[in-house]
Amino acid sequence: MSTQTQTETDSTRRGFVSRLRASPFLSDLLSNRLALAGIALILAMVAVALYARIGALVGFAPTYAELQSSQFGANPSLAAPSAEYPFGTDIQARNIFDRVLYGSWLALKFGTVTVGISTAAGVSLGVVAAYYGDITDNVIMRTMDVLLAFPSLLLALALVAIFPNELGLWRAVTALTLVYTPRFARVVRGAALKVLEDEYVDATIALGATDPRVLVRHVMPNCLAPITVQSTLNFGLAIIDLAALSFLGFGAEPGSPSWGLMLSNGVSQGLLTGDWWWSFFPGLFLAVTVLGFNLLGDGMRDALDPRMREAVD
Amino acid sequence: MVSKRFVLKRLLLLVPVLFGVATLVFAILHLSPGDPARVIAGQRATDAQVAAVRADLGLDDPLWVQYGRYLVDIVTLNLGESYIIQRGTPILTILRARLPVTLELAIYGQVIGILLGIPFGIISAVKQDTLTDHLTRVGALTGISMPIYWTGPLVILLFAQFLNVLPASNRIASQFDPPVYTGLITVDTFVFGLQSGEFAAFVSAASHMLLPAAVIGVYGMALISRMMRSSMLEVIRQDYMRTARAKGQGAKITVMKHGFQNALIPVITVIGIQFGTLLGGAVLTETVFGIGGIGTMLVQAIEVGDYPVVQGTVLVFAFLFTLVNLGVDLTYSYLDPRIDQ
């Protein structure tokens, strides 16, 4: 009797880890070199972001206010990249290297918020639409269809115009959250419909589980894979779109060391004078970060697709 | 074949979506801060003047009356007049003049993307898991990771600033003033060239098109080659491919004849969706390359608060986007009749 209980707890305890090990998704992902490269790039960017942010708080890197205000006297204006200023300086004599580093903190922070909220909202809407069907499904999904009927950047631009300028990047975040939510809702609804066909769901309902319990404990965990892929790929897009809104002048507040705004200034003021470093480095960091998310997302998608697994002669 | 019933059903499904689009645009515009009457009357106008303008615009009416009038206006294709950027000009006239600029750019960009993306995708799939495949895939992923507002300035710096071989902005050198037939500047200057025997304007227009179209094209190439690869990989594993090979057909012919045609179906979807995205992305490309299409106009209209222009542009773009998607769906079901059922 006691040995049996022993094995039972052992197997439940081991359950999670061994399930992860046995999962073809994870082992495929980890054997995918491109996906690993993506993870490495993302981790490197997170490290850079944390360095700049913690440095600004603790004092070993410039603070946000220092990065925002002009540095005449302290630095030369529009200096080309050198040992002292690896990425050069901009027209207000600010060190572009420090600004680009801090920019990764802004990109990852606002990207996380955008993708996090739209994932949460999209997953809830998608699961609810799939589970309740009928009118609920129709009302939710037709609303999503309307949002999906706009080219995404255009809808974001129109929405941004509603919010007051003082909100800075937060209005871009709000607008993009509305733009991204339907994408998650649609993917999750499709995945949830498939899960709902499974017999264990019927069994759980027959056992008297409440609706929220069925959805949260049984449906959502089984939709996790497509949700993760969608979030990863959209993270890259979010970083691009957030910077695009800043680039067009509807995002970050003036002077903020956001990549999009730096690019915008570098393009409008530095392009025809040939001060290439001004726009080159912010864009490079942006592209490398987005590449990291795309490599990882692409690898995940391959790992999820069993058709791509077997080799063909 | 696509059955009439299927087309009809899709068209009917379009009605609620377009209605929703119109309603959302109305809501967005009414939530926007700023008073259109004040904008029109000018900063120095007295309150009485502003109130007169407001009454004149019908902004004093209850919201549902304004909404009803707005819907009737849309159905009768009356999108109103610009307040500020081209004061008094009907929105439709403005859009008609600017739309070809945006479309032309999108078309050239898309053509470059297709011509490069499809071959790359096929090569990548046929040589799956070789170095060629890895390089193509990383190249494609890099392509979609670089935003147009970064690659655009880079090519401008390289080709216009340092090498000085191509123009950086505008659609044509300022000394030319070609006649407008279609609004597509390369077509217009070409026709003009045929008539007059003078092709300098055409060369100028084409060289101005090269950089922005190439930047859009590289982005499109990345998306298309990715889709082409995965679709081709799926098709290659089908039984009929093995049968064709077993009959003694060569590998290349099998891939091109049986594989290519079938693999193309999902790629068409990507091309269609991408065209819609290009319309939205025009905002960025046109800003970077200083091209006066719909994109730059929209940004300007949002900045100065020219609401009818914002409203009209967003509406027209959303309608176009929806129509393109419908076209893609119909093509898709034409190519793969199983979808119809």
Give the helix/strand layout.
The complex is a heterodimer of chains A (313) and B (341).
Chain A: H1 2-22, H2 24-31, H3 33-58, H4 64-68, H5 96-132, H6 134-148, H7 152-160, H8 169-196, H9 199-206, H10 211-222, H11 224-247, H12 259-270, H13 277-304
Helix pairs in contact in A: 2-13, 3-5, 3-13, 5-6, 5-8, 5-11, 5-13, 6-8, 7-8, 8-11, 11-12, 11-13, 12-13
Chain B: H1 4-31, H2 36-41, H3 47-57, H4 63-75, H5 91-126, H6 131-145, H7 148-162, H8 185-196, H9 200-236, H10 239-246, H11 251-289, H12 294-304, H13 307-335
Helix pairs in contact in B: 1-13, 5-6, 5-9, 5-11, 6-9, 7-9, 7-11, 8-9, 9-11, 10-11, 11-12, 11-13, 12-13
Keywords (chain B): Cell membrane, Membrane, Transmembrane, Transmembrane helix, Transport
Protein name (chain B): Peptide/nickel transport system permease protein
Organism (chain B): Halogeometricum limi
Segments of chain A where pLDDT lies below 50 for 5+ residues? 1-11
- What is the CATH domain class of the largest domain in chain B? Mainly Alpha
Class computed from helices, strands and strand pairing of chain A: mainly alpha
Average pLDDT metric of chain A: 84
Question: What global shape of chain B is seen?
Answer: globular
In the CATH classification, which architecture of chain A applies? Orthogonal Bundle
User: The CATH topology of the largest domain in chain B is what?
Assistant: MetI-like fold
The percentage of residues in β strands of chain B lies in under 5%
- The dominant shape of chain A is elongated
Helical run tally of chain A: 13
- Spatial separation of the terminal alpha carbons of chain A: 54 Å
Strand share of the residues of chain A?
Answer: under 5%
Description:
- The complex is a heterodimer of chains A (313) and B (341).
- Helix content of chain A is 74%, strand content 0%.
- Chain A has 313 residues and is mostly helical.
- By secondary structure, chain B is an all-alpha fold.
- Chain B folds into 2 domains: 34-78, no CATH class; 93-335, MetI-like (MetI-like fold, Orthogonal Bundle), CATH 1.10.3720.
- In chain B, 76% of the residues lie in helices and 0% in strands.
- Chain B is built from 13 helices and no strands.
- The longest helix of chain B has 39 residues, at 251-289.
- At the A-B interface, helix 6, helix 7, helix 11, helix 12 and helix 13 of A face helix 1, helix 6, helix 7, helix 9 and helix 11 of B.
- Chain A: Pfam families: BPD_transp_1.
